[in-house]
């Protein structure tokens, strides 16, 4: 008997598996069609395990629940990694004996801060060229790269952000490319590997960029070199993705119809773009100018996808009505401006103006220093709005820091507010977090105490810092 | 000659003539002098200068009274190290006077002088002063030379926001935004300086010693007729002579503790030079030595990451530790957002710096470093009437400057940013009845 390599392999496999019934059946059905080709949407699964927590009750504390409620002298109880109950002043919560009880007098509790724009790990400290892993500046369309494959979990910036009350972070590729690649959402518990920090079941995001950066990077490298070139680049890529989707649709239709269908060759770039058009992957688009954001919302209608969030969005205040209509969030700085032409029209009231128009406003950092005090960024925007006549209560302003970024990332069903059943991502502040002088006293992630201001053994020390000057110091 | 001097003095007076007499009463006054904090203080401004600061003082006739009850009064803040007036938009937007490549005029960079490059119409001036910063040290932020040239101190009165340009006599009197030219010289004494010196500190410090020795030894009059083979150009020598004489402080940037020790040793070798340490991420590790050598430090107190191997000891407690050892600290290094210096100082206070020291880091200390302590940075008799009335604690992110006086004149609380805000808030409220470019807000 002459054996083809395939049959030989099969025979050997069957011999080694002690000739199961399945093997003999398969060997008999030699001519059956190949198994359907499917693609694993989660090949780098999370191995995150929360820090073990203790049931915790914080009493007599000012609570901003992150979805528009403020409780004075309230209580919050969390256990088993989840928020169990909130109580108004005067109400008593029944808790088990082993519960840690904290007197929160003069203190505040908020949901953990979520930064939906960070490059920690991909542009880490130290910022050496060897570590510069955030921008695949080899082609204007690199939707095939995934930021998680660049994340260096030993970036000391994670621990610093934790001290600022940041419990979840989206790590994005940079903005050099029209399509920069996939983002990853992390739980901010610094650990050995990216997977150990990966937020379980968070959807993927994809970075896109408008304006100056792509045209500056590619202007002398084959283009795009203009904004019209940028838009042509997005449109062609979406068209290619549509074509790719049709090929896969045809394959699946033919396969289901019993035809001997051949699966299209996987194209990792178009696969990510198709994921966006399918609604599985969220678009995070770096875009400063109002006119450009408006063009992008037309591109979005043309190709029938959703832009989740414009990032930086320095001119969102000019088109807050359109952003609301199109259900697009704006992730913004409080006051950065002027470092390039597209940032020239920045105003201090951008965030409150977007909020006041009923659109989704988010405070983001894009900075390893800014991420450490996003509460102050919100405080500045809140007070600037107030002075301009946009009187937004603090309890609503906190949506900029937790609920809205959680919505932007597709994790609001899991975290982003202090509601019963949600992950216990909680910050206890030693004062009003809208003050320069307030600090995160305790940061809980999934109910585990990830940081305590008064306990230096709870401060993360990255491998990079071990044995170096400053190891374990107050940071 | 005497006549000319009299005439010039008269013209200088007229430039302040329309500064009214103002009495700010009832506020919590932080004088930043030995007078300390005065509750219910009365600050009198006349002829563009501070007249007096008194507790519960009487207001003479002829003063416009401003009630500042419940408010906080400080001297105008000073941007300790900026490029204000030298840059409008940093990237891809034409000439930026804050950066320079090699030119024939200089060999070491000492001769470069930003006083000629200041644009008082820059939008950054109004945007910055609205937040209580009334003067600033400004200089190059990037140079391919060893030295970053000579910086200037400018006031942020800027151009007349009402559209009236300075009148002819003011122009002749030399009224410019420059309060002091040749106010300081910068040099990088860390990794960047090493890069500019062949890639190693092994040449950087030899070079620095050599250029200063040369400047000391060179004749006071290097005329073009005589040959000159120095490392410095003739103009570099002239500038460095002022540094050697102690007239122009030398701002030396270094982060690594070992580099800072070299800065201290340099100061020891060149004791006439007025050395100021800049950035100083690991300065806290050498705090006692800095205090002993009388070297003040300009820092960014929020910098707490090991951005490189020179910054392993970075910590938010840098400011507090330096202060505790007796080092004088100035805070504020930025340009477009130098207005956030108060937040930076606030964060230093949140990490252990005494509050009044935090205010001093924005006022009296930078004034002293820049040799302008009699003119700016404190509310003392005879100082420029650069005064800010704050809604509350200036270091608190939710408080703001409400009224600002520069040279005794009330600044209109308006900038390009407030105009953009007003236009679009108005449009959003009206739901776009007008094409946006026809929208005017009075």
Automatic annotation (TrEMBL), chain A:
InterPro entries: Amidohydro-rel, Metal-dep_hydrolase_composite, Metal_Hydrolase, Metallo-dep_Hydrolases_sf
Domain Amidohydrolase-related: 358-434
Signal peptide residues on this chain, from the entry's feature table: 1-26
A Pfam family recorded for this sequence: Amidohydro_1
Swiss-Prot/TrEMBL keywords: Hydrolase, Signal
Domain of life: Bacteria
UniProt-recorded Gene Ontology molecular function terms: hydrolase activity, acting on carbon-nitrogen (but not peptide) bonds, in cyclic amides
Cellular component terms (Gene Ontology): cytosol
CDD domains in UniProt: Met_dep_hydrolase_C
Cofactors (names): Zn(2+)
Protein name per Swiss-Prot or TrEMBL: Amidohydrolase family protein
From TrEMBL, chain B:
Signal peptide residues on this chain, from the entry's feature table: 1-19
Pfam families, per the entry: Amidohydro_1
Alphabetized GO MF terms: hydrolase activity, acting on carbon-nitrogen (but not peptide) bonds
Domain spans labelled Amidohydrolase-related: 283-400
SUPFAM superfamilies in the cross-refs: Composite domain of metallo-dependent hydrolases, Metallo-dependent hydrolases
Keyword Ribosomal protein applies: no
The keyword Magnesium belongs to this UniProt entry's keyword annotation: no
Keywords recorded for this protein, A-Z: Hydrolase, Signal
Alphabetized InterPro entries for the sequence: Amidohydro-rel, Metal-dep_hydrolase_composite, Metal_Hydrolase, Metallo-dep_Hydrolase
Protein name as annotated: Amidohydrolase family protein
């Amino acid at each position: 008997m002459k054996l083809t390599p395939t049959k030989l392999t099969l025979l050997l496999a069957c011999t080694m598996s002690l000739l199961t019934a399945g093997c003999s059946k398969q060997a008999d059905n030699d001519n059956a069609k190949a198994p359907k080709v499917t693609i694993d949407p989660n090949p780098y699964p999370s191995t995150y395990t929360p820090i073990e927590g203790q049931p915790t009750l914080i009493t007599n504390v000012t609570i901003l629940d992150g979805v528009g409620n403020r409780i004075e002298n309230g209580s919050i109880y969390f256990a088993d990694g989840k928020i169990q109950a909130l109580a108004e002043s005067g109400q008593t919560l029944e808790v088990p004996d082993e519960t840690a009880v904290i007197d929160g007098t003069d203190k505040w509790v908020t949901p953990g801060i979520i930064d939906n724009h960070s490059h920690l790990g991909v542009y880490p400290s130290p910022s050496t060229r060897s570590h510069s892993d955030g921008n695949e500046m080899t082609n204007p369309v690199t939707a095939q790269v995934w930021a998680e494959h660049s994340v260096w979990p030993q970036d000391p910036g994670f621990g610093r952000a934790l001290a600022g009350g940041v419990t979840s972070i989206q790590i994005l590729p940079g903005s050099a490319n029209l399509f920069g690649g996939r983002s990853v959402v992390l739980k901010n518990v610094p650990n050995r590997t990216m997977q150990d920090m990966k937020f379980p079941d968070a959807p993927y995001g994809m970075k896109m960029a408008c304006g100056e950066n792509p045209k500056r990077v590619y202007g002398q490298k084959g283009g795009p070199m203009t904004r019209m070139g940028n838009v042509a680049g997005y449109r062609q890529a979406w068209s290619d993705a549509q074509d790719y989707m049709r090929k896969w649709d045809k394959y699946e239709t033919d396969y289901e119809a019993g035809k001997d269908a051949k699966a299209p060759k996987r194209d990792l770039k178009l696969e990510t773009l198709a994921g966006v058009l399918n609604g599985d992957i969220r678009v995070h688009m770096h875009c400063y100018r109002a006119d450009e954001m408006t063009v992008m919302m037309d591109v979005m209608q043309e190709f029938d996808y959703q832009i989740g969030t414009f990032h930086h969005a320095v001119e969102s205040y000019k088109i807050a009505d359109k952003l609301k209509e199109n259900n697009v969030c704006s992730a913004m700085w409080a006051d950065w401006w002027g470092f390039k032409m597209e940032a020239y029209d920045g105003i201090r009231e951008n965030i409150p103006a977007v909020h006041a128009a009923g659109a989704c406003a988010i405070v983001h950092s894009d900075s390893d220093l800014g991420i450490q005090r996003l509460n102050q960024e919100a405080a500045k925007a809140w007070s600037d709005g107030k002075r301009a006549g946009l009187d937004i209560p603090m309890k609503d302003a906190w949506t900029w820091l937790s609920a809205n970024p959680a919505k932007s990332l597709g994790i609001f069903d899991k975290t982003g507010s202090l509601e019963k059943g949600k992950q216990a991502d909680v910050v206890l502040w030693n004062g009003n977090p809208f003050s320069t002088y307030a600090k995160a006293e305790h940061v809980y992630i999934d109910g585990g105490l990830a940081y305590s201001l008064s306990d230096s053994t709870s401060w993360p020390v990255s491998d990079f810092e071990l044995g170096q000057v400053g190891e374990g110091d107050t940071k | 000659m005497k006549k000319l001097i009299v005439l010039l003095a008269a013209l200088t007076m007229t430039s302040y003539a329309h500064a009214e007499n103002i009495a700010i009463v009832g506020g919590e006054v932080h004088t930043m002098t030995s007078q300390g904090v005065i509750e219910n203080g009365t600050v009198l401004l006349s002829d563009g200068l501070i007249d007096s600061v008194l507790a519960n003082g009487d207001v003479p006739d002829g003063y416009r009274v401003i009630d500042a009850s419940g408010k906080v009064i400080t001297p105008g803040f000073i941007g300790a190290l900026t490029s204000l007036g030298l840059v409008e938009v940093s990237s891809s937007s034409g000439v930026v006077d804050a950066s320079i490549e090699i030119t024939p005029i200089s060999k070491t960079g000492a001769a470069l002088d930003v006083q000629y490059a200041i644009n008082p119409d820059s939008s950054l001036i109004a945007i910055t002063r609205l937040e209580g910063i009334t003067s600033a040290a400004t200089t190059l932020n990037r140079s391919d030379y060893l030295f970053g040239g000579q910086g200037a101190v400018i006031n942020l009165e800027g151009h007349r926001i009402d559209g009236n340009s300075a009148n002819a006599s003011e122009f002749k009197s030399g009224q410019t935004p420059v309060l002091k030219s040749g106010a300081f010289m910068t040099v990088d004494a860390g990794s960047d300086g090493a890069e500019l010196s062949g890639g190693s500190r092994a040449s950087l410090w030899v070079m620095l010693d050599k250029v200063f020795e040369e400047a000391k030894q060179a004749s006071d009059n290097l005329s073009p007729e005589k040959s000159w083979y120095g490392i410095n150009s003739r103009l570099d020598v002239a500038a460095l002579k002022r540094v050697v004489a102690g007239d122009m402080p030398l701002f030396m940037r270094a982060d690594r503790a070992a580099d800072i020790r070299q800065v201290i040793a340099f100061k020891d070798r060149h004791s006439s030079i007025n050395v100021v340490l800049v950035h100083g991420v690991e300065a806290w590790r050498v705090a006692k030595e800095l205090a002993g050598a009388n070297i003040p430090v300009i820092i960014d107190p929020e910098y707490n990451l090991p951005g490189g191997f020179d910054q392993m000891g970075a910590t938010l407690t840098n400011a507090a530790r330096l202060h505790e050892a007796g080092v004088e600290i100035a805070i504020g290094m930025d340009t477009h957002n130098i207005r956030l210096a108060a937040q930076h100082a606030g964060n230093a206070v949140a990490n252990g710096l005494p509050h009044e020291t935090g205010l001093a880091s924005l006022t009296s200390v930078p004034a002293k470093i820049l040799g302008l302590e009699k003119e700016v940075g404190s509310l003392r008799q005879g100082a420029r009437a650069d005064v800010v009335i704050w809604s509350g604690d200036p270091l608190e992110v939710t408080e703001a400057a409400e009224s600002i006086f520069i040279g005794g004149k009330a600044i209109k609380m308006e900038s390009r940013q407030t105009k953009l805000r007003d236009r679009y808030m108005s449009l959003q409220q009206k739901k776009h009845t007008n094409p946006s470019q026809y929208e005017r807000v009075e």
